[in-house]
């Protein structure tokens, strides 16, 4: 019993190992949660089609503009098309074009989104802006209300 390898010496190491394991697991869960939240918005640039209710476009734009840090400075409306004129937080002009496309079959009509940000284009910001608006349109599709994320 004089060797120093008794149970009293080993027990604290087990607790330390268990603490490290629990801490590592907590960090992994937080990273996974953050990645899943970030992945919930499709930020790819280019026009996109979204199954949405036409009367939810203004509400979705409000939420998407706030998330993408743009301000709406003007609106041009026609029967099946809305053009929102926006300005980014870095004072770049832009626009979001929303067009109603007649649905096929019994589904509700689709909405086409197309964004242009900056004088020379900024695909990352365009994708981010459209992604936030599209996500909110999908959240509201077929419902009266939906919680904000």
Q: Name the structural class.
A: alpha+beta
Rough shape? globular
What is the tally of beta strands?
A: 5
Major sheet: size, sense and barrel closure? 5 strands, antiparallel
Q: Treating each run of at least 4 consecutive H or I residues as one helix, how many helices?
A: 3
Strand content: 15-25%
Distance, first to last CA? 60 Å
| Rg calculated over all Cα atoms | 25 Å
Mean pLDDT: 76
Spatial arrangement of strands, main beta sheet:
1-5-4-3-2
Low-pLDDT regions: 31-39
- Oligomerization category of the chains in this entry: single chain
Helix content: 40-55%
Topology as H/E string? HEHEEEEH
Give structural notes:
The protein has 149 residues and is of the alpha+beta class. The chain has 3 helices and 5 strands. A 5-stranded antiparallel beta sheet has the order 1-5-4-3-2. A hairpin with an 8-residue loop joins strand 4 and strand 5. Helix 2 crosses helix 3 (123-140). The radius of gyration is 25 Å and the shape is globular.
Task: Write the topology of this structure.
Layout: H1 7-38, E1 48-51, H2 57-68, E2 70-77, E3 81-88, E4 93-101, E5 110-117, H3 123-140
Antiparallel strand pairs: 1-5, 2-3, 3-4, 4-5
Helix pairs in contact: 2-3
Summarize the structure.
By secondary structure, the protein is an alpha+beta fold.
Key descriptive features of the protein:
single chain, 149 residues, alpha+beta, five-stranded antiparallel β-sheet, 3 helices, 25% strand
